[in-house]
Write a structure and sequence with these properties.
single chain, 167 residues, alpha+beta, Alpha-Beta Plaits, globular
């Protein structure tokens, strides 16, 4: 079983799309380890604020199969196939870590934005504080402690979600 951490983001109908995304992840992977939910400004474009969090789970899927499944979940919940990198999102599911795998394909691992974006690093440090970044050889707790928190404004918001059958 691989230990996986995935960032979850949405800035379109945020509450509904977050709930649908979490429900889909539970259906496929069972119990999730959840960070707090954060609200952040859009990064890289002018847009509505995002909800962001990180979820952890274990899977027997290969990295290729997991990547494909997450894309299918995104598309099933309104993501446009040709969506630009910096644009509004109904649901964005990005693999951050897959055990300690380091690769460039089918996805970049560990995901580079972990160390750049507070909305990824803070929730990852919450859900996996003692996990070691496979390249930087520091825990995510250490990386968050040394992060320049003046770069991006981020606030915790209440998570209003419970698993719903049939969602």
């Amino acid at each position: 079983m691989a230990q996986v951490f995935v960032s979850v983001g949405t800035n379109i109908d945020r509450q509904a799309n977050l709930s649908k995304g979490l429900n889909a992840l539970v259906k496929h992977f069972g119990q999730l380890r959840l960070s707090s939910l954060f609200e952040s400004e859009a990064v890289g474009f002018d847009g509505s604020p995002f909800f962001n969090m990180v979820v952890g789970f274990d899977t027997q899927l290969s990295i290729e199969a997991l990547s494909q499944l997450l894309r299918e979940i995104e598309f099933a919940h309104g993501r446009e196939i040709d969506a630009k990198k910096f644009s509004p999102r109904t649901l964005d599911l990005d693999i951050l870590l897959f055990d300690d795998l380091i690769c460039q394909a089918p996805v970049q691992l560990p995901r580079e934005e972990i160390t750049y974006n507070a909305f990824v690093l803070w929730p990852l440090a919450e859900v996996a504080p003692d996990v070691i970044h496979p390249i930087l050889n520091q825990s995510f707790r250490q990386l968050w402690q040394s992060y320049d928190k003046s770069q991006q404004q981020l606030s915790k918001v209440p998570l209003d979600w419970s698993f719903e059958l049939g969602s």
